Amino acid sequence: MKAVLPLFLSSLACASLAQADQPSVAVDIAPVHSLVSQVMGDLGSPDLIISQGASPHGYSLRPSEAQALQNADIVFWVSRRLAPWLDSAIETLAPDTTQIELLEVSGTSELMQREGALFEAHDHGHGEEDGEHHDEHDAEEGEHHDEHDAETDEHHDEHGDDEGEHKDDEHDGEHDSAEDEHHDDDEHDEHAHSGVDPHAWLDPANAAVWLDAIAAQLSEFDPANADTYTANAEAGKVRLEQLKGEVSEILDPVRDKHFIVFHDAYQYFETAFDFPASGAISIGDATQPGPARIQEIQDRVADAGVTCVLSEPQFNPGLVETVLDGSKAGSGVMDPQGFNLELGSELYPALLLGLAESLADCL
Fold this sequence. Notes:
By secondary structure, this protein is of the alpha/beta class. 52% of the residues lie in helices and 8% in strands. It is built from 14 helices and eight strands. It has helices spanning 4-21, 30-40, 63-71, 84-93, 127-130, 133-159, 168-181, 186-193, 204-221, 226-251, 267-272, 291-303, 318-324, 347-362, and strands at 25-27, 47-48, 74-77, 98-101, 259-263, 280-282, 308-311, 330-333. Strands 2-1-3-4 form a four-stranded parallel beta sheet, sandwiched between helices. It has a four-stranded parallel beta sheet with strand order 6-5-7-8, sandwiched between helices. Helix 4 (84-93) links the parallel strand 3 (74-77) and strand 4 (98-101). Helix 4 packs across helix 6 (133-159).
């Protein structure tokens, strides 16, 4: 019995050491959480630092989310173009943390932000192919950092709020208030009007590139489990190939139809599956369209035979009702982030299938 006990304690210590070597990971939005969950598998689960259903463009971290960011060994996030405030939050709370900005991962296809309500002037070419997008991004990066630094003090003060003031049942009201404050913010207008479109997760080819990048970074931190991370990423890429066929099969019967989206977040999905939208009601999810833009959309609905105008679950559907006034077009709901989906590795496939099914049902 005396010989067994030391052996047991030794095994327990080794297990604890192995667990301690596995990285603590934080991610920004639910689709990225899903991809990282796929790669981590049974070895762990990432912390989501932007609540599902909240806009990533402007957000106030709850104390628990700030703590998760501060404790992270690795942060995977889409881009400062999607969440401009998060850059300064990482610098403030986790300056020594390894961070992977997925939009900058080599092999990621980037599309330029579309202009105007009806997208006529937009070129669907991928920025990666013409070799210009990284130069544009680098030229603007200094400007973004200056904006972020100006916000750092205010953002840091928010983290000091008492945890009791940020209970889940109160957070929705706080977030609504924050959304109102950011409604006409120039920073959001800049995101909406220029540069690279950050909604790149909606292209499954980008998701496949990111799975490899996630596996590589986790393996570098935790080489003992590198084979597992790699195998999980490969399994995820096989699932993505199946997913592309499933989405195309859902969309094929309605490819001759025309639709309008609530805000211009779906360009990567449209390009990946060759199913372009006819326009967007709003430039961005934090920007109200003016009367002229609404009139443009109403004219397009009437003139182009648009059969569906889509809202999003976390935003007021009143704008869609305005656009539909006097029209026979139907309405539906599309969700680019998985607002109502269960967190985990299956969220990403469910998200893309949900987008296809929402379109098919509405059209």
